[in-house]
Design a protein that fits this description.
By secondary structure, the protein is mainly beta. It is built from 1 helix and 9 strands; from the N terminus they run βββαββββββ. The chain starts with a strand and ends in a 5-residue tail after the last strand.
Length: about 100
């Protein structure tokens, strides 16, 4: 499944300063959608290159990270139970900034 994964608000620094990733994620046999809990695990393993603890806490994103699925807050779609499909866009934005 082809997806666009984007990082902002400083999270791109965890991915070698690459903001936008066009990725191909393998689905389990017979599935047409990917649960966000599986995508988060895939992102943590395949895209996050340094300080993964700044992205994930347990099985979800750390507090202070907004997750958008096709420009909609994932909280409206069930967070970890939300699903993404072919050509969807997932954006992670940190609301926490140093200063």
């Amino acid at each position: 499944m082809q997806l666009t994964v984007e990082f902002g608000g400083g999270l791109e620094l965890l991915c070698q300063s690459v903001k936008i990733h066009n990725v191909d994620v393998d689905l389990k046999d017979g599935e047409k959608k990917l649960p966000m809990r599986d995508l988060l695990s895939w992102v943590s393993t395949n895209l996050i290159k340094e300080r993964p603890e700044m992205f994930m806490k347990g099985d979800t994103v750390r507090p202070g990270i907004i997750v958008l699925i096709n420009d909609s807050d994932w909280e409206l779609d069930g967070q970890l139970d939300a699903t993404v499909g072919e050509k969807d866009a997932v954006v992670f934005i940190s609301t926490l900034h140093g200063g």
